[in-house]
Amino acid sequence: QVQLVESGGGLVQAGGSLRLSCAASGSIFSINAMRWYRQAPGKERELVAHITSDGSAYHADSVKGRFTISRDGAKNTVYLQMNSLKPEDTAVYYCNAVVAVVAGRYSNYWGQGTQVTVSS
Questions:
Q1: How far is residue 58's CA from residue 85's CA, in Å, rounded to a whole number?
Q2: What is the pLDDT of residues 32-75, one digit of tens each?
Q3: Of 35, 89, 107, 111, which cross-links 6 as Cys (Cβ 3.0–4.6 Å)?
Q4: Residue 15 parent element (H or E)
C-alpha cells in the first residue's frame, strides 16, 4: 500500500510563510502527478496546485505569485511553499498523488490533511 504523510501546517500571522511537505511511502513503482488541495470550513475542497512528473506546475489563481509547488523525485516528496499568507488561506490542506504500485496501473491516494490557520 501507499501512504502520504503531510507535515508543516500550523498557525501563522497574515503576511507570514509556511512550507508544507508530503512524503509518499510504501510499494511505489512510480508517481505521476502530485497535488495540493485545501478545504475551508463550509466550503468544497479546491485544487491549490499541481505538479507533473516532469516538473510542470499549475497554481490556482487565488494563490498564484504567493504559493509555489515543487517536488523531489528521489524522495517521493512534494512541497508547497506558502508566502504572504492571508486569513482566507485558512483551511485543511491535503496532499494527493497519482501512484502506480505496478507499471501502468495508477491509483489516487490522499494524505490525512494538515491544518493551516492564518490570523489577521
A1: 18
A2: 999 999 999 999 999 999 999 999 999 999 999 999 999 999 99
A3: 111
A4: none
Residues 6+ apart with CB under 8 A from 93: 6, 9, 20, 36, 37, 38, 48, 80, 113, 114, 115, 116
Compute the CA torsion angle 116, 118, 119, 120 (nearest 10 deg).
-160
CA 13/CA 29 separation, integer angstroms? 40
Q: Return the ∠ at Cα 86 (arms to 81 and 89), rounded to 5°.
A: 70
Give the residue from 102, 114, 113, 104 showing the smallest Cα distance to 2. 102
For the chain, the distance separating the N- and C-terminal CA atoms, rounded to the nearest angstrom, is 40
